[in-house]
DNA sequence: TCGATCCTGTAG
DNA sequence: CTACAGGATCGA
């Protein structure tokens, strides 16, 4: 489900729906999703008021009264949203927060790979300190990207997905950004010429920026986003289909255990 | 830096 | 049945 743009939409939705709500009770259906913490830890949230929700990279931080914070990572299939009544919770609900007004904050996650933890301000600071720059921030400049890539000899694609270097680029948008900037995903990060780094910087911001806008539009007006803009997909998942620029076949390879899609004709020196 | 791992679900 | 899935971490 979520890359950065979808996480961003989840955060906005949650902020609008649940700010100022008070927690009545918390039910951990699947302790694995809060491991290594203990379900009893979450009792501290009973009676706490939700003050704010924000995003950093693909993490979600929910601030409650009484100095309590919940940190969420949706991983592959997680989702977080409010339903009108706790009895509506779906089958794959792993954790749910019954609110005082009888609504329910649902943490749904079919593969159960995501994590939710009760944390302190200091824990959050530590999590954030381990992350690279936000790709959509003004501080993320072409010069910074060049610095990041300069010393790394690994193939570019896994490098831009490394959250410690740049925080928030996932598997889909990594392939997409490299296609837009005509960079071979197998090329060593250090060997990318300066003008291609500039192009990559532009592509990352464009691809992610567009996706943030459409993810939000999809939430505000479901079904109105044109297919061509809904995911910004030019190469991802299009193995053996014609490249949109040159009509040659898109290839699929595996890097770091993840699928990479690219055009061997457009993406080369 | 690769491969295994955490899990369930779906497509072929 | 196998392959694969939008993520991240761990140990060899």
Share of residues in helices: 25-40%
Major beta sheet summary: 4 strands, antiparallel
Helix/strand/pairing category: alpha+beta
Superfamily (CATH H level) name of the largest domain:
MutM-like, N-terminal
Ranges where pLDDT stays below 50 over 5 or more residues in a row are 226-231
Number of β-strand runs: 10
Biggest sheet strand order reads 1-6-7-5
Shape: elongated
Overall pLDDT level:
94
Number of helices: 7
Distance between the termini: 33 Å
Q: How much of the residues is beta strand, in percent? A: 15-25%
CATH class (first level) name of the largest domain = Alpha Beta
Radius of gyration, taken over Cα atoms and rounded to an integer in Å: 20 Å
The succession of helices and strands, N to C, reads HEEEEEEEEHHHHHHEE
Q: Total domains, how many? A: 2
CATH architecture of the largest domain: Alpha-Beta Barrel
* CATH topology descriptor of the largest domain: N-terminal domain of MutM-like DNA repair proteins
What do these coordinates show?
The protein is an alpha+beta fold and about 270 residues long. It has two domains: about 5-130, MutM-like, N-terminal (N-terminal domain of MutM-like DNA repair proteins, Alpha-Beta Barrel); about 140-260, Helicase, Ruva Protein, domain 3 (Orthogonal Bundle). The protein is built from seven helices and ten strands. It has helices at about 5-20, 120-130, 140-150, 155-160, 170-180, 195-220, 225-230; strands at about 25-30, 50-55, 60-65, 70-75, 80-85, 95-100, 105-110, 115-120, 250-255, 260. The strands form three sheets. It has a four-stranded antiparallel beta sheet. Strands 2-3-4-8 form a four-stranded antiparallel beta sheet, sandwiched between helices. A two-stranded antiparallel ribbon has the order 9-10. Strand 3 and strand 4 form a beta hairpin. Helix 1 runs parallel beside helix 6 (about 195-220) and helix 3 packs across helix 6. It is elongated and about 60 Å long. The structure holds a DNA duplex (12 and 12 nucleotides).
């Amino acid at each position: 489900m979520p890359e950065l743009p979808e996480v961003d939409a989840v955060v906005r939705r949650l902020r609008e729906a649940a700010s100022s709500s008070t927690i009545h009770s918390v039910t951990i259906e699947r302790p694995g999703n809060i491991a290594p913490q203990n379900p009893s830890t979450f009792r501290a949230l009973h009676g706490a008021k939700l003050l704010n929700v924000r995003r950093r990279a693909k993490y979600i931080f929910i601030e409650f009264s009484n100095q309590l914070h919940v940190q969420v990572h949706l991983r592959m299939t997680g989702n977080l949203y409010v339903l009108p009544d706790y009895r509506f919770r779906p089958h794959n609900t792993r954790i749910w927060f019954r609110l005082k007004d009888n609504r329910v904050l649902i943490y749904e996650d079919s593969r159960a790979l995501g994590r939710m933890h009760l944390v302190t301000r200091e824990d959050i600071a530590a999590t954030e300190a381990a992350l690279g720059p936000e790709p959509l921030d003004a501080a993320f400049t072409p010069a910074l990207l060049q610095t990041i890539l300069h010393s790394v000899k690994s193939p570019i694609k896994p490098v831009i997905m490394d959250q410690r270097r740049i925080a928030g680029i996932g598997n889909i948008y990594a392939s997409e950004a490299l296609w837009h900037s005509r960079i071979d995903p197998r090329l060593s990060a250090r060997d990318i010429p300066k003008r291609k780094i500039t192009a990559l910087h532009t592509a990352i911001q464009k691809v992610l920026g567009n996706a943030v806008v459409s993810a939000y539009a999809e939430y505000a007006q479901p079904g109105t986003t044109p297919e061509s803009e809904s995911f910004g997909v030019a190469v991802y998942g299009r193995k053996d289909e014609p490249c949109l620029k040159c009509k040659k076949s898109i290839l699929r390879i595996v890097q770091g255990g993840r699928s990479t899609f690219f055009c061997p004709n457009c993406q080369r020196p």
